[in-house]
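Appendix B: complex inputs.
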Amino acid sequence: MTQLEIELQLLKKEVINMWSLVQSQMVKAKTSMLEFDKDLSREILLKERRVNGAELKIDRDCENIFALLTPVAVDLRFVLAVLKINSNLERIGDIAEGIAKYILSAESSFKRDLLEASCVMKMFDQSISILDDTLSAFENEDTILARQVFQKDEFLDDINRRANELIEAYLKDHPEDLDQALYIHSIIRKLERVGDQSKNISEEIIFYLEAKVLKHKHSH
Amino acid sequence: MESTIVKSVDYNAYFGDNRVVKNVNIEIPRNTVIAVMGPSGCGKTTFLRGINRMHELIPNATAKGKILLNNEDVMEMHPIFVRLKIGMVFQRPNPFPNLSIYDNVIAGYKLNGIKLPKAEKDKIVEESLTKVALWKEVKDSLTKKGSFLSGGQQQRLCIARAVAMAPEVLLFDEPTSALDPISTSTVEELFHELKKNYTLIIVTHNMQQAARVSDRTAFFYMGELVEYDETKRMFTNPRDKRTQNYITGRFS
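Resulting structure:
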């Protein structure tokens, strides 16, 4: 195995580790919201530093690979893709942190009826599942799975589009829950962004494996 | 629209019965830099030497197919004329050790028995050395022997010697493999300048050099032209698996 192959394998492992960390942040954000567990939210804030550290380390490693090993063809596309995936993962980490901050600011646990009516937990499940799919696609070099992410993201977009009307309908019957509803609304907006970031990641996976640029194209 | 200056049609080259270049078809546009790469023994240098009929100088060497220069078959031209139109620079700088820098530049004329007035020779020497970015460095020592120059300067002197004959095409066989990185960089910069007036075909083992200097790259493997495309495409998304394996260092 060449030195470049060894370095690329190590880089792939690092990215997978960061992915797992970000996934676990998202799962904790979901649990923390469902169980109104503020300790778990604090843990998310602490772990966010590790996500940032991982991002910097991967950036530095990519830079070294460019400078020292001059990758070309599929190797070049892989390192370019990793740079962008890294940045998208870090943003998903930021989203988990943002949700944790909302939970810490909320005064009381979220009402089950509101969680149900707004579909926010379904969005959580879907965004975590999309993140799982992108990881599997990356690990197993599976562009079919990467393409499925585009369809799954539509579900998130759909709820996001209906969020106003769902929450408005709930508030008509429960005007006293306005504060909570505003938090949920903001969280829905954030979860929709997880879908967008995952879609970006899928585009990068396809770019690296098939040399196809899907960015800014409407149909994939 | 780029016009084709060199074209090979079903070109095959042999050493005895051994076919080392197999059915190569390639079109080389005027005023471009073409890199030719591939593992040792793939036929790239043999192909290069076929372009200006140097292949046939080797005992037992034969060729089939055509090499066209401006749509004319080089095999039907006088070999000396072919080599005037298609100059060549080799791996190791090889200035004539006993000749001055001045005489090295116009050696092609002397060797071909062409007599020129002093003023014209002066003009050719200055222009040729200027084209290879050597004039400023040697203009005050033109009578010194070429072998006193550094390796990089000697190689530029050899390029000036080729340029002095007003060729259309310049062939380079691993022109920087014997040079240090600074001299290599100077010669590479020169390629960008030379391409304005000439078409350059460069055999190189240095893939990064191919990526840096060429417009198009040809990849040879076991005598075949496997892939020939824009250099940007070859180094980002080659079409053939063998090219990808070679440039990423995964060649077995």
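The interface with chain A takes residues 207-208, 211, 235-238, 244, 247-250 of chain B (CB under 8 Å).
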